[in-house]
Design goal:
Low-confidence stretches: none
Keywords: Glycosyltransferase, Hydrolase, Membrane, Transferase, Transmembrane, Transmembrane helix
GO molecular function, one term: glycosyltransferase activity
Number of strands: 17
Shape: elongated
Number of helices: 30
EC number: 2.4.-.-
Protein name: Glycosyltransferase
Strand order of the largest sheet: 1-2-3-4-5-6-7-8
Mean pLDDT: 92
Radius of gyration: 36 Å
Largest sheet: 8 strands, parallel
Strand content: 5-15%
Number of domains: 4
Subcellular location: Membrane
């Protein structure tokens, strides 16, 4: 019942939140006919850049739409069909402030001036003023002297008032220019100056009065005043439909009180302007490009007019997601269900708003392609967040563990008694180029097992140096007949080939095959505790976690040790609840008959252990997991080896995903349950996310370069798109940190160490998943060296060379954006935060690489909770 109440609370929160944000705002009504509109009649899909012009019928329809709403319009050119605008406007009783476009092209300028003068003397005589050039001085297309020359040419040729249109500060900076005009044609666009909406009208009026004081003898006409309905922000100025409506209605009231002649910027949206002014450029119209009014001129203003539809959609999507998340949730406490509901409602609201925001944009084929990519990426992020939320809830807020194998209790007097069922176990130890002293320690530990029925088969495959494998062979002979050693060269199939070779030579009476790596020292009671589980006929795999004995040797190994814990003590425990553990190739035990029935160890992937486990599940067998260590191995000695190990795991996982896609996604028949399919796919999603994130990082670098190269055409991505990767990064770090503190019972330093190590592997995992998914070629099995010499500092730095370069590039982009573009725009600032968050995994790799070359500091390691085993 508490979960039901929580659901109702979230529904009310979404509806109430939307309602609160969209409370009607009372603003001065816009009921009067205004003095004028800036008028560019380009229709959707038309552009002066592409030389796709409107025709006379298009212009006539636009003018009929403005009839009765305005006294006049101002235009920007007299070329071609635009010279017919006065004639087309006359039937609608609309006057014209006729403009000529001036640029660096002198020949084109001369034609514009000649045509302007010509039209000024032709009927229907509804031209009320002339505007020679639009922001030509601001753009630095013309000097003040050149502009004065054009003005002096036009003014004597007509009785109409003549000016040139420039922003207010250009007039104040160039008072000489005012001497050559009949009036000041001024642009007042407080948005471009980053003025907050609530101060924008006062700013505009005060600026107008400042011009009056500076030029008391010149009439002033505000030839552009407005606010965009969408696009990026500038300082305190935010573009939105509601802000546009508020500014215009407030300004029109004040302008009427102050007797200001003005032209609203502008009548119709011009999507083509986004190419030259950025995302905001296409959204200045009172009507959109489809000629639909953006707001009611006299009704209360609502931020999102469609908010009720969005709220309902958010709730419906949230309920659907909640149903999916709560399937098989009987083991969750109410707090866990509430946590999942919270995530469902947050994500559904974001999904709906992202889609809504997408519909407000104007799109070209290129922008559609980019937007679709971004939307797919955002959807992928949300999918991963939901999967990780589910794991978070099941790891933290469970009632009880249904399938976790329990340890025998030491205080139980029967614990010392040998179990009734003790199957014969054949322990296989594959080895390749292993240090003989290390492998001998492993065999000595096996010789101390307090279990009567076992053998050990050691297969050394392809070790070239006889001095490496011969001492191991001799030691096996000393240990007795339980231990058999095989040196095989050549032997194909890498580790899987060695294990299959051992299987063929396994004692006929063996019922269970166990595998340990060459660096593992098992505890004496390993088989005694776990082998009896095979008395249950449904059990095919018994798995214990990997653990390590050298985590206290250095700070590097300490953070690696901390990072390993997450998988073995969190992920494996939750996966076990649905019989979906990842079989890993050490400390695993497999029923021999099942192993042979499944076709032995597979050689088609480089993670033969996980692939075998999946095949066993596909045949309908069960596995069990015990969250207790029965052996300890060695952590990779260098960051290079640490990365190679994770690269192998991730690449192999993608090979398995490709090879078993039919079974995992239900296209091929198998005995996999829905829970098993879910855990195998969702468990690999974070690795796939690292691959996608690597692509995103590279694209972010390219986009940042385009922003720096052409800031007007390439703005920072929309705020919501930038917020998503920041939220995702924060979510991942918070999840990892929380679970380590609460479930692993780690202290803060250990949790930080695990986070650092995990981040440092992002690049290696990303490369592995991309190549594994899209290339898929078989790569060699790369052995993880143990007991290797530590790297010198320069070699350590070189181990993180790629990551270091990417970190430098990303952080340099942040610096360049700050110094060249500034953080006046919230989008710029947020985008730079994205770049910083993207750089952190690469910085972490550099730090971990340095740590791998640092001398041992046992005290520091012990502070992170690492103990010598």
């Amino acid at each position: 019942m508490p979960a039901v109440f929580a659901m109702f609370a979230f529904v009310l929160l979404v509806l109430g939140g939307y309602g609160y944000i969209n409370q009607p705002a009372q603003e001065p009504p816009w009921t009067q006919v205004i003095p004028g509109f800036a008028f560019s009649p380009y229709q959707d899909g038309q552009s002066p850049v592409d030389r796709i012009e409107p025709n006379a019928d298009d212009i006539a329809r636009d003018l009929s739409l403005l009839a009765g709403k305005t006294q006049a319009i101002r235009t920007y050119t007299v070329a071609g069909v635009f010279g017919e605008i006065p004639r087309l406007a006359k039937p609608h009783n609309i006057n014209v402030a006729l403009g000529a476009w001036l640029s660096v092209d002198q020949e084109a300028n001369d034609k514009e001036i000649e045509r302007l003068i010509e039209l000024a003397h032709l009927p229907p005589y509804n031209i009320v003023r002339l505007i020679v050039g639009n922001e030509a001085i601001l753009r630095e297309d013309l000097t003040v002297e050149q502009m004065i020359a054009y003005l002096d040419k036009v003014r004597p040729a007509t009785e109409l008032p003549v000016s040139t249109a420039e922003p207010w500060h250009v007039w104040l900076k160039n008072p000489k220019l005012a001497e050559h005009v009949d009036y000041l044609a001024v642009h007042l666009l407080p948005f471009w100056e980053g003025i907050a909406l609530d101060d924008a009208v006062d700013f505009s009026i005060n600026t107008y009065k400042q011009l009056q004081q500076a030029f008391p003898d010149k009439p002033i006409v505000v030839t552009e005043v407005g606010w965009p309905s969408n696009g990026r922000s500038i300082k305190a100025a935010n573009a939105s439909q509601a802000n546009q409506a508020k500014f215009l209605r407030r300004f029109i009231q004040r302008a009427e009180q102050e007797n200001i002649v003005f032209y609203v910027m502008e009548a119709f949206d011009q999507p083509w302007k986004s190419d030259i002014e950025g995302s905001v450029g296409g959204h200045w119209g009172v009507f959109d490009s489809f000629r639909t009014a953006k707001f009611e001129p006299d009704r209360p203003i609502i931020a999102i007019p469609e908010w009720k539809l969005l709220a309902a959609a958010s709730v419906l999507v949230a309920l659907l997601i909640t149903v999916l998340l709560l399937i098989d949730s009987a083991a969750l406490r109410d707090s866990g269900r509430t946590f999942l509901m919270f995530n469902a409602f947050v994500i559904s609201s974001l999904i709906i708003y992202v889609i809504y925001d997408f519909t407000l944009q104007y799109h070209t084929w290129a922008s559609i392609a980019i937007s679709v990519f971004l939307l797919v990426g955002v959807a992928g992020v949300f999918l991963i967040v939901l999967a990780e939320s589910h794991e978070w809830a099941e790891a933290m807020w469970y009632r009880s563990r249904r399938r976790l194998l329990a340890l025998p209790k030491p205080e139980d007097p029967t614990a010392a008694v040998s179990p009734a069922f003790m199957p014969f176990v054949s322990i296989h130890v594959p080895a390749y180029e292993e240090p003989p002293e290390m492998l001998i320690d492993t065999l000595n530990a096996l010789s101390r097992l307090d279990y009567p029925n076992f053998e050990v088969v050691v297969v050394d495959n392809n070790t070239a140096n006889e001095a490496t494998w011969r001492p191991v062979q001799q030691h096996c002979e000393q240990l007795g007949e339980r231990f058999r050693f095989f040196h095989v060269k050549p032997l194909a199939g890498y580790k899987a080939g060695a294990l299959n070779y051992a299987l063929e030579r396994t004692c006929t009476q063996a019922e269970v095959v166990a595998v340990i790596d060459a660096d593992y020292k098992v505890l004496p009671h390993w088989l005694k505790d776990l082998a009896p589980q095979f008395e249950k006929p449904e059990i095919a795999i018994v798995q214990a976690p990997q653990d390590y004995r050298d985590g206290a040797e250095s700070a590097f190994k300490a953070i690696c040790y901390a990072e390993y814990k997450g998988f073995f003590h969190l992920g494996m425990v939750t996966r076990n609840e649905r019989n979906a553990i990842i079989q890993h190739g050490t400390m695993t035990m497999v029923r021999r008959s099942v192993l042979e029935e499944a076709g032995s160890w597979g050689v088609s992937t480089i993670t033969e252990d996980t692939e075998l486990g999946l095949r066993v599940f596909e045949q309908g067998h069960e596995a069990t997991y015990i969250d207790h260590s029965y052996g300890h191995g060695l952590i990779p000695d260098t960051f290079t080896d640490y990365k190679k190990q994770r690269h192998r795991w991730a690449y192999g996982a993608m090979q398995i995903l490709r090879e078993h896609a039919g079974e995992l996604f239900g296209f091929k028949r198998s005995k996999l349950t829905a829970g098993q399919r879910y855990h195998f796919v969702s468990g690999w999603l974070p690795w796939i996310a690292d691959g996608i994130n690597l692509i995103f990082t590279l694209l972010a670098v390219v986009w940042s370069g385009l922003m720096l190269f052409d800031p007007l055409a390439f703005n920072a991505p929309p705020l919501l798109i930038s917020v998503v990767p920041i939220m995702f990064f924060t979510f991942k770090i918070t999840k990892l940190f929380t679970l380590y503190l609460v479930q692993v019972k780690a202290d803060v330093k250990t949790a930080l160490a695990a986070t650092l190590a995990g981040l440092s592997l992002s690049y290696a995992i990303g490369r592995a998943t991309l190549s594994g998914l899209f290339i898929g070629r078989k790569i060699p099995f790369i052995r993880t060296p143990k007991m290797a010499n530590k790297m010198a500092v320069l070699y350590a730095i070189n181990a993180a060379r790629d990551e270091s370069i990417l970190a430098i590039v990303l952080l340099s982009a942040v610096g360049l954006i700050y110094f060249q573009l500034g953080f006046d725009s919230k989008e710029n600032l947020t985008w730079c935060l994205v770049l910083v968050s993207q750089s952190l995994p690469f910085v972490a790799a550099f730090v971990v690489a340095l740590l791998s070359a640092a001398p041992a500091r046992a005290s520091a390691c012990n502070e992170m909770g690492v103990k010598q085993s």
